[in-house]
Input
Amino acid sequence: NNHKSDSRGALIVLEGLDRSGKTLQSRKLISYLEGLSYSVESWRFPDRNTGVGQMISSYLANKSELDDHAIHLLFSANRWEKRSLMENKLRSGTTLIVDRYSFSGVAFSSAKGLDIEWCKAPEMGLLAPDLVLYLDIPPEKAAERGGYGGERYEQLEFQRKVARSYQILHDASWKTIDACLPIEDVEKQLQEVVLDCVTTCQKGKPLSQLWS
Ligand code: 2DT
Output
């Protein structure tokens, strides 16, 4: 029962506020798909392992200061430097579960007041996700969940602005899941839509590019 063949993998993105459960749920999705013998990898952005990623990491830890536009472009560059690997993986049949993507890029930078179209522009031509899963949680509820880690952006007032930016970006193709539900309920709902998406991609749905 090996599904890896000449069919492509799916690009599946999890988005949501800090503490919405993205990381936990992506881990669960990986084991679910592995259990069904799919070839699958866990990815996340920012990818802090590259040179660009280390600059981002230092900025997030408040160890360096950068102009809002400059850090926005670094986050985007961090996706561009992974683009060809991403495409190769997908074409070779591996499904990618990605914790944050361009939507985080636009939501966080536009929450600082940057123009939303300016924020979207450098993302053009990156691979478009086959599925965006939005883990929906009120900022106040998220803040109650064991506190934030102390990185830049992990403050209630800013998270409120990010939530508003996500609302603007949100389109009909996104799958919104109520992230306040018990973990197992969120997990079940995610499994269903993800399996459906993986199957559609296997059947030959073409890869496309942002923003379409
Ligand atoms: P985590 O590693 O805990 O998810 O935090 N961010 C992320 C941006 O501002 N722009 C981006 O393009 C991306 C991918 C969200 C990473 C923090 O960085 C923010 C939270």
About this structure: The domain at 11-202 is CATH 3.40.50.300 (Rossmann fold). The longest helix spans residues 183-202. The two ends are 34 Å apart (CA to CA). The beta strands are 11-16, 40-44, 95-99, 131-136, 175-178.
